[in-house]
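ESCALATION

Customer reports they have been waiting on this structure for their group meeting. Please prioritize. Original submission:
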Amino acid sequence: MTAVTKIDSNATELRYQEETSIGVANTSNDFIPLEPNSYADFGGQITTVARNPINSSRQRKKGVTTDKDASGGFNTDLTQTNLQDILQGLMFADLRPKGEEAVTAVSGADTYEVASTTGFFAGSLVFGSGFTNTGNNGLKHIASLVADTSITVNETLVNEASPPSAAKIVVVGFEFTTGDLDVDASGSLPLLTSSSKDMTELGLVGGEWIFIGGDASDEDFADTENNGWKRVRNVAAGQMTVDKSDLDMSTVADTANTVRMFFGRVLKNESTTSLITRRTYQLERALGAPDDASLSQIQYEYIEGALFNEFVLNKAAADKITCDLSFIGTASSTIDGPTAAKTAGSRPSVVEADAFNSSSDIARMRLAVYSTTDEAPADLFAYFTEATFTFSNNATPNKACGVLGSFEITSGQFTVSSAMTAYFAATSAIDSVQNNDDVTLDLIFARSNAGIAIDFPLMALGDGRPNVAQDEAITIPITAEMASGAKIDSDLDHTAMFVWYDYLPTAAMPSS
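Update from on-call: job pushed to the front of the queue and completed.
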């Protein structure tokens, strides 16, 4: 044995595994990799209390261990894939995919074989990934469903009798038949209407962002204002109400185009009790091998019963989008080499993806007074220099006699707040703060034909005092406290919503 005298930070790795119940590892779950840029704190912090009797020597006696606080925090870049799963723990909710199935075979040069076709329809746009044959990956258009286990597409596929286990198809949108999607802008808010498609089948919910239009000339509306990013207010069988849009929409009865609509996988803080799901995790940090003759005998430290307590999204000008994640645990432990108790569960590799940045990947960032009659109200600010969004479960560890650490964790109110700095242009923005207007904010990142939307249906603004400095543009700091959008509409009964898009057309990219 040759003991090492130091271990470099580059020898470490960070992973997480969802637990069966708080503090109980689930040996069938993967340890999913994370990509920390830095750590805030990680591990167990011991509290000791010294003995301090009155005595003539005027000396204290050795203290005793009285408590242990387990916590973990780290900073990471925001990519398309790296936080989608673990943010379920922050939001106390499950992701809501429209339709997603593993593919057991590709046959007949145009058919995906699956276990179920739930959520898939003729006309659905699906995105294939993970296949050996690249022709089976990418965007496809469903022609028909056969026997509830076969999905036939209009494109040519390559037969694969046994695709890799990761091969799957995901519903990413819908293509309406020729002339079947119209716009009625005669009411207070515009409606997307269809005479043949039951739009409730699409799985869209209030507050969700969609993108209208494909990359071919006949896949969108002829009128530019009816294409682009739209927020869904509510959905009925033959119509969908839009309450946010890039531009004011106009009435059109389309007769020539097969308009495409793209949507994603929703995650929001749920108001229905049956949909609220608490998750806890085991956080695992590998600390390298203490013996350079046994490099496979890795040391580990764990935070157990870890609840995702706080998430901070950082957006600064000309920089990457980064995130700070913080967890509170019930216990922590270390091991000096692999053991079955801690290493059960596979450890997949990192899914490679580029980080989003604040310069070229912002498809939309709009802060505006909410309107019941205008889907495209004027922005309060044209440009922002920086913004942070802080999500918190306000959790508290539960202490008890006979327990070193915590036996449980109590979650407080789910809160979201923001601090932003914008370029000042008009006093109407200051008035909006002082009038306590109902304000809404959305932020959409897009790159490489994929993206993420974040929407806050309702908030109250604070601060709003202009900063005036010589030879500099006037800026204005704004704080925001987000609230449930139920005041606006019962379909907006959440504080925050994320939407992940596995596929978006090139038309949705900021540079297009």
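Sent to customer with the following note: The domain at 181-263 is CATH 2.40.30 (Elongation Factor Tu (Ef-tu); domain 3).
Escalation resolved.
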